[in-house]
Structure formats: structure tokens, C-alpha cells
Amino acid sequence: MKKNQPPSESGFFNPRTFAAFLLCSVGAWLAMLSFASTPSSGTLTDVSGPVTYMAGPFFVANPTPVIFVDQGPECLGSEQPCDDYALTVTLPAGYHTAHPNAAVKVTMSWTDNGSGASDYDLYIYKNPRADCTPNTCTSTDGSQAADYQSASSANPEIATISPLADGTQKYTLVVVPYTPSGETVNVKIELLPGSGGGGGGTGFGGPDPTTPGVPRYQNFFAPDGTSAQSSEGEFNIGFNPHTGRIMTMNIGPIWRLTPPELLSPAKPECCEALWEDKDNPTTNTGLDPILWTDQKTGRTFSSNSTVGANAVYGYTDNDGDLWVPFGIAAPNGGADHETIGSGPYPASLSALSTPVNQGEAVYYCSQDIVGPASCYRSDTLGASYGPSVLAYNGQGPGVPGGTCGGLHGHIHVAPDGTAWLPVNQCSGLQGGVFSTDGGTTWNTFTVPNAISQTQGADPSIAIDSDSTIYYSYVNNEPVAAGNPPEGHARVVVGHRVGNTVNWTNYFDIGASHGIKNAAEIEAVGGSSGRAAVGFPGTDVAGDYQAISFPGKWYAFIATTYDGGVTWTTVNATPNDPVQSMTGIWQQGGSHQDRNLLDFNEITIDDKGRVLYGYSDGCVTPGCIAGTAANDFVAFMRVARQSGGKSLFASNDSATDTTAARIPRPPCLSGTRDPSASHLTWKAPDNGGSDITGYQILRGTTAGSETVLVPNTGDAKTTYDDTTADPSVKHYYYTVKAINAIPGTSNSSNEVDLTVVKPPPPEDVCALPGLTKLKDPAGDTSAILGIFPSPAPPGSDLLSFQIAQPYAGDNVIRLAFTINTDNGESPQPPGSSWYVAMKIVKNGITTYKGVHMTWNGTTPTFESYTPAPNGSGGVDGRFVTTGSQKPAEASSGYAPPFNKVVIVVKASDLGLNPGDTISGFVSGVSQTAGGVITGLYDQMPDSLAFTGSYTVNSNQFCRPNAAPTAVLTATPTSGNAPLAVNFDGSGSFDPDTAPPPDTIASYTFSFGDGSAAVTQSTPTISHTYNAAGNYGATLRVTDSRGAASTNTAQVLISVDSQPDLIVAQLTASNNQARQGDKVTFTAVIKNVGQQSAGASSTQFKDGNTVLGSVSTAAIPANGSVTVTFNWYTASAKKGTHTITATADSGNVVAESNEGNNTKQITVTIQGNKT
After folding, report:
1. b/e per residue, 42-69, with b = 16+ CB within 10 A?
2. If phi over 0 gives left and psi between -120 and 50 gives alpha, with beta otherwise, what is residue 523?
3. Is 1032 helix (H, G, I), strand (E, B) or coil?
4. Sheet of strand 290-293, all strands in order from the earlier edge strand to the far edge
5. Exposure class string for 444-480: b at 16+ Cβ within 10 A, else e
6. For 383-418, how does the pLDDT look when each residue is reduced to its tens digit (9 = 90+)?
7. DSSP class per residue in 938-983
8. β pairing state of 404-408 and 1157-1167
9. How many whole angstroms separate alpha carbon 992 and alpha carbon 957?
10. Other C-beta atoms within 10 Å of 982: how many?
């Protein structure tokens, strides 16, 4: 973890801070010699510029931001001086559309006066800012993060403002003299028009097309409310081939993942892994989390310090069930960016192999405060370490071993025993050091054309089974003049020959997806010629670290199978960004978008499948959808390769390589209520061919499932079985996946569903309201060093709920309910039960809190503004002095003291209707002596702000009067079948105050035994087929769920109709000779209840019409007789089927149009002559 800005990155001592301290001691009398910027303001347009100004000379140091406390500089007058420049940028209408990549480049440079230690930082604030006083941010207290900045040890410092917008925007440019020695800085401001075709298009971030052999990924997600959902983190991942388990760490706590197929009973591979907290107590907190699993032995190492493999260190041989919580090692001189790696000894040291180390050498490296890095080796499999050896000294290219300096990546060991340590800064290039003698000596190397970013990602080295290296890095990409900066993810292949590395196959692995900026790149090797590289990437150019950076970042993984000649890159998190509409901060300190810290990590399992561990900063539905701001958390995630060619050639026969296979089994879950069984499943790996449907199977005993739905016909992963009989106690279900390959997948896991009545829905309008946080029971702990006794009753947090009841005085109030185990009153003095909130408005993040606190025999209920904790973050424990406001009198804590209810005015929290609370945390804290504050319990365990709530208007929860249903119908009478048009558009709701209630649904009941119809529109047609009188009714429901109670009914009268049939059909001769006249007699009867008008009766010989006879009107139940003569001279010999049809012209509307015919047969026997 970067503690501060380079080169030292130290949280304990920084040469910039030390030099600033010395200057401060004499700064008072020199202050009068410092000058403001000249000129003090300027305007940049598309037809003017560049703009330049000077500031200084500076003599008084201002070594801020303070590490782990501030998010921006402290600019508070002569004691903490800064220089301000007012910049106005004016662009014409249409400029952004024509120049989507345009940016403003600000370059600050100076000439050192000879000390060699001078350093100045540049911060840019977009105005106006609500969190600054004044709102131009010319005075800041450290809590205001700059919108853009360049705060390193570089000269020049370069910051980029992007994206730009049409119109006028004002900025304040702040120069901070971090360690001055009398220099004057020169600032140049220029407009870079960029090129067309800006990033951020709708196509970026989606899934890749399915192709056999191309890797596919599925993700494991950290369990809710646990320390695996941390607020910041840098991900470490290991895999133990002996157990099949995955070990992870990203801030301190260590989590073990057991893949679902290894559980008992086994589950499909796409199910969630079993996450178990397996902390090493000595590394649970610290400065620089690192974890490494030696796959040969199965031993996992963890450390969370930077001074060596000693106290804040440990190792386990059973995946965290038991830890050896220390190592025997001297401090190695490092202070930042530790790394642990292991691998075989080089051949020259093979004699060091023992049964204890099993032939594995373990290395620990970290850098010290001024740029060098040291490593030492363990020959006891990490139990103890030998002497520390300088790997590089950071003193510049003129000194042997001095080419590289500053931050390094993670050490990896090749099969031939070569230890590789990559370094970002090697005299302007990326490179590193390697050792071929077990870390006794180190050789420096650089990668030609691998240009270092001033503040960029650590490089990473993958090593395949041939000891070929794949050097992955983020390249400071050369761009055309006038274009914003870009950092591309690249890989180059290296072959070591002696102490020389030969480089081939440079490749831009993000180009296929249009990636313009990448960060935190990591690599792993496999069989000969195979390697994989994972990294977050975005398609937006510009200052990728800026808090206002507009890009969305996704996790990409690139793979090669031909030694780096070609690479295939896929999005491992499609439609689910890991950071959204903001940057990824790489410069240390406590900047808001520092949540992802410095790195992720990548490894492989025993089948060669890639495991990419990453921290996810965008986790809420709004952030994922792009409708809400980034969440700035670091929830643990693991992307596991689910299909396609792996990194082990030996596994090729077990997966798709060139041809698709049937899918893997889905992971099924479900619920059941009286209305249906509701099935949900996780889509499995598709086998290299898109899933086209699913087969649903059901049974009433385990294992007896038969096909219920042969093929759903689509890729939806839900199904409601409305045919489930609620009287059947058990229904068992399985699901199979279908793709283009004949057949189905194997069955999913089986689920046994019984009817469970769903709980009533939560109501925000009534206490306790909506549940936003939950926490397991029984997880309180004594606060070590404060109160060693058990936590007091009532301190075990269970859940938190928020409500917003209707207020008769129209003053919006929020009710916060903290649910606990049964408590006591009074509670210990100095104890508090609190909820803290993160509020993001207009891009500015602020925090508010409510608490019940005890300082006597009765509690105090208040709202307050949280103060930062010791690391600069906010978790709600601490109160900004003077910010408290009394809560409402309806707040309370009543027997059995298991509910803390705090009611406050929304305005006391700075909230108005439409404002959104972007996250909550809750805790029970105890303060000792007014100095030390610890927690008995917290929700979530990680104290990462979780959940959201949007404040409603007071009218949202006003009493809900029932709507009134109004129904009309046309016509209301007639003969059957009678089509009637119903209209409920006259229905209304009496609640008309803004926002008015509306009619949300209309339920029509027709009174004829047919099913009622519920719809969102007010009109419908219905046909009555039988005579009778019917009462049609309408019930309406409003937008808040209230249903009408009035009777809205229309009477429909339907009369019967006539019904004509051929009651009798005879022939004068059924055995006629050819040429005879045959007379047919038909009796036409009206069997209906209404008279039938005149019609016609038709006679046919087969399909040949013989003729028609007019038929008189027939009263109900009456009949008429008609005759027809058939002259058979042209009739063929044989049997003829004669059909008589009543009302052949369909002129009579009948109740039954299907019973109008009758048939007889007549045989023509031959010529009568």
C-alpha cells in the first residue's frame, strides 16, 4: 500500500515532511518574501491561450495533506500557505460534441535552488464547491478533496481537467509549497482539443461474444455485512491445490473460499463459494496487507507490516484453521510495499532443499523510505529468514544497481529458480531486478519503450513452465499533440540469457476493447507459452486518477496460448463496473477514490483456470446501473475461469478449445407461497455456445423429478410454476441448461420447496420502516485495551431500519431504529449507539450521524456530524465538536431495551425531498477517559457504507384515502353473443395534493363466471355468449396500494337468439336410376327462444352445390318444410352424400352457428335405359 506520495511512500517518516519541518522553523521571517501568483487570474477559450502565470518565491513549507487524515491540502493563511489562481474556461456551444476528448492541461514546473529537495504540488478545485468556505476553495482545511491534482515528487507536476463542457466553468488552481527552498513556480494552462470518437460509449463494458476456447468467467461475491465488504483494500489471492481452496486478503481479515463443487453435498460450479473468516490475529490490522500461497506445499503466508517477516506476519498449513502468528527475522530496512513469493531454488543452490522446505525458497521484499528495496530469503519455508540484501538502491543510473527506485511489484520465482522483482520507475522506463543465486545478488533490467507513468500501476511478471517471462505494465502512452494522456495495458515477452533479457512480442492487450487507461495490472503464467493478465480498464482518456474522471472501469483478463504472439482479452465483469464515473487513485494518502488502493492479484487453480482477485468499488444497484455515484468501497470479489482454454495444456481435453460443449449445470434456488413456486437460478458456464433455454423438472419426492417445461425458449433465469398445488406438501425441482449442442446439461442442484406465507411488506411510512442493515447475533466482543469485560447487554446489533412517517405539521422527520439483543438501563457512561450516513450531493460527499449516548442515568438522543477516525476515514464513532443537535422528543429506549429509536428532522441532516443517503453504518461504541473509543459491535462488520434511502416528500406517506371506481358500458343489452365495451376512465382518487395519487390498476369482473382481469388501462371489451342478466363490476387500486370500496356496477342484459337446425332430411328414392328425379324434403326447425327471419336452405352433392330453396320465417320452436328436386341425368353412378344446410347465407344471427346441417346418402344405380 502506498502510504504517501513517492518516492518514499512511508507512513512513519517522509523526507518531504522532514525537509518541510526544517523550513518551517525559519519560515516566519521569510514569509514576507513570498509573492502571490502573477497574474492572479486568467481566461482560457478555444481561440485563446495558452495561459501562463508565476507564483512565489516560496519559503514556508506546508506539508499537507496529512497522511491518513486529509483528503486535500490545508491552506490556512501564513502558517499553512498556498497560492491561488482563478481560472475561467469558456467554450462555445457544441464544442464538447465536436471534441469529446478535449482536456485542459496544467503544467507546473520550477528550477530547484540547489537543495535537491524542493517539491511543490498542484491541486485544482471546480467552483463553486458547497464544502468549501469560501466556495472557491481558496481556504481549505484538508477535508476537501481536489477535483484534479498532481501531488508527487515530480517536476513538472501535470494535472488534466476532463471532461469539459460547453459554456463557462471556473476553477481555483492551488499551489502547495510542500518542501520549498525559495523557488518560483511557472504554470502553463493549455486547451487540448483531442481527437473525435471519445470513450464512454454505450457498447463498452458489455459481455464478449461467446466463442469456443475463449476464456469465460464467473464471480464469487463477498457475503453481506462481513469484513469481506471493506471500505478500502488491495487484493491478494492464493490457491492451495492440496485442498482446492482459495485464500484471499484485501485489507487485513483473511477469507477462505471453498468452491461449491467441493462442498458436501456438492453444488454446481456456478454456485457461490463458501466464504469463511480465517484471520491471522497478528495481521488483522496493519499497513500493507500481503498474502501468498506456495502451491507446492500448500502453505499460505500473510503479513501486514513493511519492516520484515517478523511480528505482523504468520503462516498456515491448513488454510487458516491454525496460524503460526510470527516469523523469526530481523527488520529488512523496508517501510512500504512488501511482497512475499516462493519457488524452487536455482540449480546452484539445490543442496539447500530439505524435507522442511520441500525445495521451496521463500522471499520477502520491501522498499525503504528513500527508494531502495531489500529482500531476504527463508530456507525454512517462511519460519525464519536470513540476512537482508539490497535488491536495488534507487540512487540513479550513475550508481551500480541504482537504475531502479521507488515502488516495486510482487516477487515471482521461475521454475529455473530465478527470482523476478518488477519496478515501475527505472530511469524513466519500467523494469526491475532479478536474482539467479537465491537473492544473494541482484541484476537490474529495463524494458525498452515501456514508459513509466509519473504515478502509475506496479508492473507484474508472469512466468510460464519454460521460465519465459511476460512483463505486464501500464504504459505512459505517446499521444498526438492536443490529446489527453492515456495509459495502455501492455505485455512484452522476455527470455533471460545469462544476465541479459531479450524482449519480443510487444502487445497492447486492451486495444481490442478500446481501452485508453488501465490500472493495477497483474500477471500469472502456466504451461509453456501460456499466461494471463488481469487489470481494470476504461475506454476514456485523460487524468485517470481524478475524482471527477468520467470513465467506467471493468475487470479485463487477457490470455495468450502462443508465447505472447497473440492475446485474447475478455471482460470478466460485464455490465458490472468495479469503479464508476471516477478515477483510481495511485498516489497514496486518503483521497476519496483511493478505495482500491494499489493492486489486485491473479493466480491459477490446479486445472490451470485463472483466478483473478479484485476489489469492487461499485456495488449498489444505482452505481452499477450508472444512475448513482460510485460507492467508494472495496468489496472482495474473485473472478474464476469457468470455461474456455485454461493455462494448463493438460486440461485441454476437459474443456472447450475449438468446439462447443453442452453447458454446465445451473445453480438453483427458490421459494414457494400459496400462489406458485418461484424458481431462480444462476446461469452456468455455457460451454462455448450461448444458452438458448432451460428445462424445468418437478417431482413430489426427492429424485423423482420429471419434465414440467421441456424448454423455456429463452435465457431468463427465473420461472414461476403457477401449476403447483398448495395442498401438496413438498415439490422438488431441478433445472437443466440448453444451448446449440444437442441434449441438455446435467441437472442443477435439487431444491425442496414447501409453502411459506410471505411476510408482510415493510412500510416506510410506519415505524420501524425499511431494513437497511443486518448483523448476525452473538458477534459482540470486548474492546481490547479499553474494557476487557464482555460487551454489555443490548450491544449486540441485529438490524437497522429507517422510516419516514407522515408529519401533520409538514416537517419531514426520519426515524432510525437500531435493533439489538435485550439491554439494560442505564448503559455504561461513554457508550453510544449510532447510525452514520454518507450523503452525496452534486458530487460532494458529506457525512451525518444520529446517536443515543450515555453520560448519566438517562440517554441523550442527537444528530451530529461525524469526525474522521485515525486513518482519515469516517465510521461514525467520533463527533465533530459543536455539531450536535437534539433529536425529537419521540426518540426513546424502552424495556426490554432492544430498540433504540432516534427521530430527527431531515433538515438537521441537511436533507431535503429527493436527496439520497448513499450508505449507512451502525455501531455500538465505548469511550474510555474521553480519549480512546472502540466498538463492541458494528454493521456491517467491514464498516463499509451500505444501502441507500431517498428522502420522500411529506405527502408520500399522507393518509391514503380510497379511490372511487366509476364504470360505464356500451351497449348494456342485446342478443347473444353480445360484445360490450367497458370504460373505467372516470375513476378518480381524492388525494390530489402533490404528488397526487393516480389509478394504478383496474380490475374488471364481468359477472358471467369468467376470470376477472386486472390491467393498468381503463378500457376493455368482453363478449357475453349466453342469455341472462349480468352484473359487471370494477375495482380500482391507486398508486399507493389503496383499493376502492364503493360499488361500481353495470347491469348487462343478454337475450337469447334463434337457432336453426335441419331436423329431418329425406329423399323420395334412395336407390335411383341415372336420370331419375329425386325429391329431397327437409324440415327446418328453430330450436332457439327468438323468432328467425326468412333465410335459405342449400342442398349439396358432396362439395357440389345443387341449389337453394327460400325458407320462410320461423317462430321460436316452430318449423317449416322445404323441398328440392334433383335431376340425376348427369350424376355419376355410385353413392352420393347429400347435405342440407339451414340458413346457408348466414343472414340469421344464431346462438349456435355450428349445428345447421344434416346429411343422407343416395345411390345412383345406372342408366334407366
Report:
1. bebebeebebebbbbbbbbbbbbbebbb
2. beta
3. strand
4. 290-293, 300-303, 313-316
5. bbbbeebbbbbbbbbbbbbbbbebbbbbbbbbbbebe
6. 999 999 999 988 766 677 678 987 789 999 999 999
7. EESTT---B--EEPPPGGGGS--PPPB---EEE-SEEESSEEEEEE
8. unpaired
9. 13
10. 22
Give the DSSP letter of residue 787. Answer: B
Q: Where are the alpha helices (DSSP H) in 31-71?
A: none
Please count the other Cβ atoms lying within 10 Å of the Cβ belonging to residue 161: 28
Q: Which of 451, 612, 630, 461 is CA-nearest to residue 538?
A: 630
Main-chain phi, psi angles of 727, to 5 degrees = -80, -15
The set of cell numbers assigned to 43 is 481566461
**Whole-Å CA distances, 877 to 433, 676, 798, 816, 849:** 45, 46, 18, 17, 9
Distance of alpha carbon 178 from alpha carbon 696, whole angstroms:
67
Residue 312, all three cell numbers: 505482523
- Confirm if 34 and 57 have CB atoms less than 8 A apart: yes
Distances from the Cα of 1119 to the Cα of 508, 1057, 1063, angstroms: 93, 16, 9
- CA-nearest of 1089, 1073, 1081 to 1132 is 1073
What is the predicted pLDDT for the residue at 29?
36
Alpha carbon dihedral 719, 720, 725, 729, in 10-degree steps, equals: 70
* Residues sharing a CB contact under 8 Å with residue 673, sequence separation 6 or more, in sequence order: 755, 756, 757, 758
DSSP state for residue 212 in the 8-state scheme = T
1107-1110: long-range pairs with CB below 8 Å, 24+: 1108/1144
CB atoms within 10 A of CB 79: 12
Tens-place pLDDT, residues 10-37: 222 233 333 333 333 333 333 334 456 8
Residue type, 699: G
Place of cell 476537501: 144
E strands, 780-880, where? 797-803, 813-820, 831-841, 844-854, 859-864, 866-867, 878-879
**pLDDT confidence tier of residue 159, bands split at 50, 70 and 90:** confident
Rg (CA), the chain: 39
Show the 3-state SS of 625-656.
HCCCCCCCCEEEEEEEEEECCCCCHHHHHHCC
Strand partners, 434: 420, 443
- Output the pLDDT for position 586: 85
Distance CA 401, CA 762 (A): 66
Mean pLDDT of 794-812: 96
Q: How confident is the model at residue 91 (pLDDT cuts 50, 70, 90)?
A: very high
Beta-carbon count within 10 A of 992 CB? 9
Distance from C-alpha of 585 to C-alpha of 1118, rounded to nearest angstrom: 95
Cα–Cα distance between 969 and 1048 in angstroms, integer?
11
Task: Give pTM, 2 decimals.
Answer: 0.72
- At position 940, the amino acid (one-letter code) is P
Cell representation of residue 749: 442442484
Query: Rounded to an integer, what distance in angstroms lies between the CA atom of residue 684 and that of residue 270?
Result: 5
Calpha distance 753→783 (Å, rounded)? 43
Residue 867 Cα distances to 69, 147, 787, 875, angstroms: 10, 22, 23, 9
CB proximity list for 282: less than 8 A, separation 6 or greater? 304, 311, 312, 313, 314, 323, 325, 326
CA-wise closest residue to 147 among 132, 168, 167: 132
Beta strand pairing call for 610-616 and 601-604: antiparallel
Query: Length of the chain, please?
Result: 1169
Which domains can be identified in the chain, with CATH numbers?
15-192 (2.60.120.380), 456-649 (no CATH), 667-753 (2.60.40.10), 770-866+890-948 (no CATH), 968-1055 (2.60.40.10), 1060-1167 (2.60.40.10)
Amino acid at 524: V
